[in-house]
Amino acid sequence: MIAKKLALNIETKRGTYEAVFKWDAKDKAYIVSVPSLSGVVTFGKNLKNAKRMAKDAIELYCECLIDDGNIIIDDEEKAVGKIPHSRIIAIR
Questions:
Q1: How large is the average pLDDT for residues 8-21?
Q2: What distance separates the 2 farthest-apart alpha carbons in the chain?
Q3: Residue among 81, 10, 5, 80 at smallest CA distance from 40
Q4: What b-and-e string marks burial along 6-18, b requiring 16 or more CB atoms within 10 Å of the CB?
Q5: Residue 77 three-state SS
Q6: Phi and psi dihedrals of 27, rounded to 5?
Q7: Is 63 left (phi over 0), alpha (psi -120 to 50) or beta?
Q8: DSSP secondary-structure letter at 86?
Q9: What per-residue confidence (pLDDT) applies to 1?
Q10: End-to-end CA, the chain
Q11: CA 87 – CA 7 distance, rounded (Å)
Q12: Phi, psi (rounded to 5 degrees) for 14
């Protein structure tokens, strides 16, 4: 039997994020969303493929956010990214 909805933690090089996998009977695929990264939605024909697609989508989304100068907080509350040198102020 195929689970209708499943939440799993996905570990990426940019942190760990919870992904929600929902089985779509019409398309016969898992639709994947990441609640803490609202722009991430993907799919896979089976759970293994959907997990791989979720990891790739999360990493790409995070790369884009970091390239734009953002710092991301993953679901384990770890900061990912860096402050550009122009924003660093040395206090002595």
A1: 96
A2: 63
A3: 10
A4: eeeebebebbebb
A5: coil
A6: -90, -10
A7: alpha
A8: G
A9: 47
A10: 63
A11: 37
A12: -115, 20
> DSSP letters of 31-74?
EEE-TTSTT-EEEESSHHHHHHHHHHHHHHHHHHHHHTT--EE-
pTM, entire model: 0.83
Length of the chain: 92
27-82 pLDDT tens trace? 999 999 999 999 899 999 999 999 999 999 999 999 999 998 899 999 999 998 87
Compute the distance between CA of residue 19 and CA of residue 9 in angstroms, rounded to an integer: 6
Distances, alpha carbon 92 to alpha carbons 37, 87, 89, in Å:
37, 16, 10
Q: Which residue has the tokens 């209708």?
A: 4
